[in-house]
Amino acid sequence: MKTLLRITNVIFVLLFLFTLTACNNSDPTGPSTTVINPFSNGGTERNMIVIMSDMHLGADLSYAECKNNLAALEKLIKQIKVSPNVKELVIAGDLVDEWFVPATTNTYQGLGQADFVSRLATTNSGVFAALNSVIQEGLILVTYVPGNHDLAITAASIESVLPGINQARDAVLGLGTYSPVAYPKIAIEHGHRYNFFCSPDPFSNQTVAPGTIMPPGYFFTRIGALAYIQGNQPPGDTTPVVTPNTSGGNSQDYLYRYWKDWYMTLNMFPISNRFDENLIVTNMNGFTGTYKVNDLIPFQSSPGGFIDVNLYNGIQDNWDLRQTYNSVPIHINTGLAIDSVNSNTWTDYQSELQYFMNPASNKRLVVFGHTHVPKISSYQNYVNEKCIYANSGTWIDNNPNQTTMNFVVITPQGAEVSSQTLVKLYNFEHEVVTKMNENSLRF
Fold it and tell me: What is the DSSP letter of 88?
């Protein structure tokens, strides 16, 4: 009798849970909790475009930002491969990470970039094997677009570990924008092109590192990685205070704002070392020296006096040159660019400024990575047409106050007038696909 009652109770609970789940899933605005296949269009056409970014794969798992999520990433790539509806997989930057390396570590271990990338592929062998399997099968086009953490990684280095991959690169190293095959009104790029700390800088430091394009964000990230492995210990030093030079004009004002960025970041990511220690080991992208934190921070000899800086001397004066070099359509004011380096919404806004409100652009759907903040937003362009911006989020293990394991899926419209291009945002946390948001438009 007790056994029968237990069985009856179990059946009742299961029926109740099924009914509750069905009710919860009836709200089309909420995230889906049912088992869904994000790579199915309900038909037989192979037309879906999957965008992923910011995997941040490292050569050493003792400090790499993506370690626990590697198995899930490999599993999702394998799911993409077997889909009969996926046409393209786009990796929108920060696949290979040579920035998030502790400052005291020799990134290349005395060798070169090719060896570093090879070691990284070995460390993340499951993910690279899954990607290579997709590439070699040839049914799905796999495209790589550079990000800032792989800004100096050459096309040859990527080809050496992902032979046959399509690479969407600008004429200059470290940038790329991609429009999927047959869809010129879609633009996919990483989004670092518009960031003062993260976009290629071929003008600063040329006397000490000829040919370098490394922006200051590289050094900030090296320091941040050191803070990470030190476990955010009490700071070993204090950031020297700089005060505005009111008689120095725009150049000195911009350098003061630049100091404020460094002041904020060094206090946010404290290291136990003193700032006068030679601790930042470079030996890559033109740099051969070992540098102090003090080499990066603007300083002055007396309050209100002349503000100077060692590395990146003059960076506040060459921003317009950098934007021209980096093919930024609508130039951003230097002061605003410096003040906005840590603003995710500022990066998102560039989709509207550079594409939707730019009469020289025909793009209606733009996808960035970079910010690690997954989202979908709609805009009106300069002729009042609906446009969509999506951010593909990240795959790092810990993404504070945000989800991780994100990806975007675009299903292009059909020939019917009523058909819409669908844009959907998902995550794969706990290896369960959850739809986070969606929107649609017709080109």
Answer: E
Structural element, H or E, at residue 264: helix 249-268
List 145's β-bridge partners, or say none: 92
Kind of pairing, strands 375-380 and 365-368? unpaired
pLDDT over 70 at 19, yes or no: no
Tokens at 254, concatenated: 């911009």
Q: How far is CA 387 from the centre of its chain?
A: 22
- Model confidence at 301: pLDDT above 60: yes
Inter-residue contact 371 to 191 (CB < 8 Å): yes
Strand locations in 80-231 (E): 86-92, 141-145, 166-167, 177-178, 186-189
Range 296-301 contact pairs with CB under 8 angstroms and sequence separation of 24 or more: 296/216, 296/219, 296/220, 296/262, 297/239, 297/240, 297/259, 297/262, 297/263, 297/266, 298/242, 298/255, 298/256, 298/258, 298/259, 298/262, 299/240, 299/242, 300/242, 300/243, 300/245
Strand, helix or coil for residue 130: helix
Same domain? For 223 and 190 the reply is: no
> If DSSP codes are grouped into helix, strand and coil, which group holds residue 305?
coil
- Report the distance separating Cα 426 and Cα 433, nearest Å: 7
User: In the block, which residue shows the tokens 């293990």?
Assistant: 397
Neighbouring CB atoms inside 10 A of 140's CB total 18
CATH number, domain of 357, equals 3.60.21.10
Instruction: For 100-116, write each residue's pLDDT tens digit.
Output: 999 999 999 999 999 99
Q: Do 185 and 220 fall within a single domain?
A: no
Within a domain: 323? no
427 occurs within a structural domain: yes
pTM of the model: 0.91
Q: Give, for 39, the enclosing helix (H) or strand (E).
A: none
Geometric angle at alpha carbon 154, from 210 and 328, rounded to 5°: 75
Given a cut of 70, whether residue 155 has pLDDT beyond it is yes
Structural domain for 367, as ranges: 48-196+341-441
Please tell me whether residues 191 and 58 are part of one structural domain.
Answer: yes
How many folded domains does the chain comprise? 2
Confidence of residue 33 (pLDDT cuts 50, 70, 90): low
Please give the C-alpha separations between residue 254 and each of 246, 250, 330, in angstroms, as whole numbers: 11, 6, 20
